[in-house]
Specification:
9 strands; 4 helices; alpha+beta; two-stranded antiparallel ribbon
Length: 200
């Protein structure tokens, strides 16, 4: 369980599947290096033995740290046996302040594939999950040939029980990891402990 700093709610998650992303001050290089070291240990990777994979994991870890902000819980979905760059952001707000449908779709463009699925839970009310993906162009080669783009997928989960709204964003480029994340999503939702919730 984590209280994510001073957040007025708690989060239970499977530590075998997720890594909590700490908020590290940009000037705290030593703190960042220590956390990156723990991530490499989690993957069982030694930089001297496998410099390529180690640098990939370290670069992803630095990206995750760069996206850590106060005010929301942030997890790195890092299941065993597969590389993943999925960043999971979770926020809990009063239902009076929840985003409406137009705000939720503000990021959708003509180049975006959108899929909306109704979602109903026993613990946190009802809502929907929105899946979209945007291709980012990598530019052109020196000879003028176009490079392939990168598909950045985003899932947004919004649930409202009449009092609290849970907003979860998942962003990443490792599409196979999304399939595994979908299996973990129901339990992750249950693990969100809104203020005043009764732990059963």
């Amino acid at each position: 369980m984590t209280d994510q700093g001073q957040l007025p709610w708690e989060l239970d998650y499977d530590a075998a599947q997720f890594v909590e992303i700490p908020y590290v001050d940009a000037t705290d290089a030593e703190g960042a290096d220590v956390w990156i070291g723990t991530v490499l240990d989690r993957y069982g990777i030694r930089p001297d033995a496998a410099p390529g994979p180690a640098e990939q994991i370290a670069a992803t870890a630095r990206m995750m740290l760069g996206n850590a902000r106060p005010g929301a819980a942030r997890l790195w979905f890092a299941p065993p046996g597969i590389y993943s760059d999925l960043l999971v952001s979770i926020a809990v707000e009063s239902s009076a302040d929840r985003p409406d449908t137009e705000e939720l779709f503000a990021g959708a463009t003509s180049s975006t594939a959108v899929d909306v699925t109704p979602l109903r839970t026993e613990t946190h009310g009802a809502g929907y999950i929105v899946r979209w993906g945007v291709f980012l162009e990598d530019g052109t080669e020196e000879d003028g040939a176009e490079q392939d783009g990168t598909l950045v997928a985003q899932w947004t989960v919004l649930l409202n029980d009449g009092t609290w709204t849970i907003l979860m964003d998942v962003l990443g480029t490792t599409l196979p990891a999304f399939l595994l994340f979908e299996q973990q999503l129901p339990q992750l939702i249950v693990g969100v402990r809104v203020p005043g919730a009764v732990v059963r």
